[in-house]
Design a protein that fits this description.
Layout (H helix, E strand, L loop, with lengths): L1 H52 L1 H6 L3 H30 L8
């Protein structure tokens, strides 16, 4: 009877620990999404500023616009992949390194 009680307690403790880790992972995911949103906002402002400041040059050399847009698109892509990799790494190692204990 005592062994069964211990199994139930450890199972309940494990369930509460998993719930705690899942909750904390969701909070970290929200922080990562917020960080990515801030990065996007700042970069879009910079893109707008650069385009408005260099409008005469871009009208004269229209081939620069696709190159610039490609560069900006690559920045967005790399940042997104990086943030997703950070979340994946946290999720993979959160129990191993006891992030939330």
């Amino acid at each position: 009877m005592s062994a069964a009680g211990n199994t139930t307690v450890s199972s309940a403790g494990n369930t509460s620990l998993n719930a705690k880790y899942k909750s904390k992972l969701n909070m970290d995911s929200a922080l990562i999404a917020l960080m990515l949103s801030l990065l996007y906002g700042v970069q879009l402002f910079l893109v707008y500023s650069v385009f408005s400041a260099t409008k005469p040059v871009l009208l004269e050399f229209s081939g620069l616009v696709p190159v610039y847009l490609l560069f900006v698109g690559l920045m967005f892509f790399i940042e997104t992949v990086g943030c997703l990799k950070v979340r994946q790494s946290i999720k993979q190692h959160m129990h191993e390194f006891r992030y939330y204990d």
